[in-house]
Amino acid sequence: MRPDPVNPKRMLHDGREDGLEPLEPLDLTAIESCSDLVRGMAKTAFGGRQLGEALDVLLEMVRDESCLVVGTFSGAMTVAKMGKVLCDMIDLGMLDVVVATGAFITHGLTEAAGLVHYKHKPGMDDPELFKRAITASTTRSRWS
User: Fold this and answer.
1) Residue 47 sits in which domain range?
2) What is the distance between the alpha carbons of residues 114 and 142, in angstroms, rounded to a whole number?
3) For the chain, N or C: smaller number of CB within 10 Å?
4) Do 63 and 27 form a contact (C-beta atoms < 8 A)?
5) C-alpha to C-alpha distance for 46 and 48, rounded to whole angstroms
6) Domain end call among 16, 49, 67
């Protein structure tokens, strides 16, 4: 601890003294893999840190043979094109149980039936999309 230069009666702490971990800049020159990137993000803040910490939790769960790994997913995972990632996680034994919303299943079946999800084009309103037989969603779906 050191005295506050503005208020010498107050002592300033170094976060390390209090058991806190300092954040680190993400050094892209040290990144050689996706794993390196996500692990580096764990030492940053906000969404990057949450992603990195989530990886650590998932890997700890997967490595613990006594741990039942349950994945819960919403329909947005299909629209976000994460279906293959989830299938790979199942095939690799990373998930023991999958709990999904009806939207997740519906979006998957929709794509299996030949529908495609598209990135929304700003300026196209719902009546215009309806005329083109494109169903409005968070993204947009259309028969291919």
Assistant:
1) 1-67
2) 9
3) C
4) no
5) 6
6) 67
